[in-house]
Design brief:
- It is a single chain.
- The chain is α+β, with helices and mostly antiparallel strands and 551 residues long.
- It folds into three domains: 147 residues, D-Maltodextrin-Binding Protein, domain 2 (3-Layer(aba) Sandwich), CATH 3.40.190.10; 141 residues, Alpha-Beta Complex (Dipeptide-binding Protein, domain 1), CATH 3.90.76.10; 219 residues, Dipeptide-binding Protein, Domain 3 (Dipeptide-binding Protein, domain 3).
- 33% of the residues lie in helices and 20% in strands.
- The strands form five sheets. It has a six-stranded mixed β-sheet. The protein has a four-stranded mixed β-sheet with strand order 1-10-9-8, sandwiched between helices. The chain has a four-stranded antiparallel β-sheet with strand order 4-5-7-6, covered by helices on one side.
Amino acid sequence: MSALDHLLSSVAAGRITRREFSLRAAALGLGASAVAQIVAALDARAEAKAAGLNSLTLNAVQVFGNIDPAIGIDYTQNMAAINFYDTLLAATASGGLTERLAASYTASPDARTFVFTLKRGVKFHSGHELTAEDVVYSMQRVLTINQGPSFVWQGFLDPSGVSAPDRYTVRFQLKKPFAPFTATLPLLFVVDKAALMTHYKPGHYGKNGDYGTAYLGSHEAGSGPYTLESDVEGSELRMKRFPGYFRGWGPNSIDEVRVMIVTQEATVVSLAKTGVLDMTSNYQSNTTYDTLKGLGFTVFSAPTDSVFYLKLNTRQAPTDDIHVRKAIALAFDYNTVRQQIRPGAPVGGPLSAIFKDAYDAKLPLPTQNMAAAKAEMAKSKYAGQSGIPLSFSYVSSTPFEEQTGLLFNSVVSQLGFKVSLSPQPWNRITDLATKVNQTPNVTEVFYSVIYPSPDSMFFVQYDSASNGTWASMEWLHDPTVDALIARSRATVDLAQRNAIYRQIQDRIVALQTDVFILSDLWRQAVRSTVKGAEYIPAGQYQFYDLKKLPS
């Protein structure tokens, strides 16, 4: 046992004080932020134990930011929303849908009219009953604010198209057919209208002022299984079980969830060794997962809808040249990433094979071919040149992305590129994505569906109407792709829609908008006392489904 391991064991067992641990850990070279996080975690565990709470601690690798469900849709924002709020329909592990707030629903044959009957007696955290008026308000609020998930419904639904014929009935009248509409409803988190209106401030939305955006950015007004206990920006977020949750609670349910923002792999391991950490994020390194296995954790793994891309800016030189894009894709070392850096399955294009009926299995799986890459460069307007500037960005808090960037540099430099590697915090990458001229030539991005349909992969990333977000850093503006996506959304017959999805994949691969590195594996290290972990497309991190047994 190393000196640090012995020290961690001693403080966890209470054989030394927190102060003594801090001094000795610093002397052993443990950073001040790591020491502070470990001490805070130990204190939080002691508090939960004293209060008799069944507490779960996990780490996330990015901050939560704005937690208003009408504003954000990234991984931590969704983690907050899916636990604080409920939706009419929810995603299932099989990629389907199940009723949550809805007792039942009907859809017209032309995919324009959808009517939902609500379950009765559902209570918000405020004690108000959730009714059709809240659902109407929530959708109108999203559409009016016009951020977050609103783009999914743009062109199909106006605020006036949502109505409540009675207290427990909601009607959506679309302007034109939208076949995947029900699959998008896990994005509609229902907020407490009466509670939120008491927090309105002056703003840009007429009689609705700021629509409660200032308040919901750091508070919640939901009916979900957990309430917000505290949110320390950049440090941690705590959730507490809502006793009145309409689905009820069983034995060994989680009373309190503590999400720590921990990006350093060594700190994750240290927290596990103290016995504090119950579950990791799904973004840890191979080494960390292997270490935690040795500590008795189970590494839960499952195929996912998520694809790991190098997004290529198609409207900025030199990646505006299709031959450059093809050369980069041919030069990339896929096997090294999949075998040594980030395990995953080969993928032929932008869609994961988890959508087996829509996936185009005829697409060839990409492999490294330097001769073919050089031949493509010879066709480009940069033929024979050297020192061609190429900007490359990745998330600074993820070591495996750094390794991928270094690998990329080593191979494309052989094609004459001078790569500028630029690690950035995630919020900076999302900012860079808003303007085409500041979006890097190449950016490492994982994209997972935000609703359980291939439409989420295609519309969100490749439709020209979606340009300007981190998901669409290709800045694609292709009339053929736009037309195919529009046709798929209007096609009610599922088999015909899947056939169009395969055409979309073929076109995107032909344009080489990305380097399609791999279809990701969901991996989390979970302590043996935690049960119920499973991967749900567009529905990860539902703490209600977990149980934690006594140790």
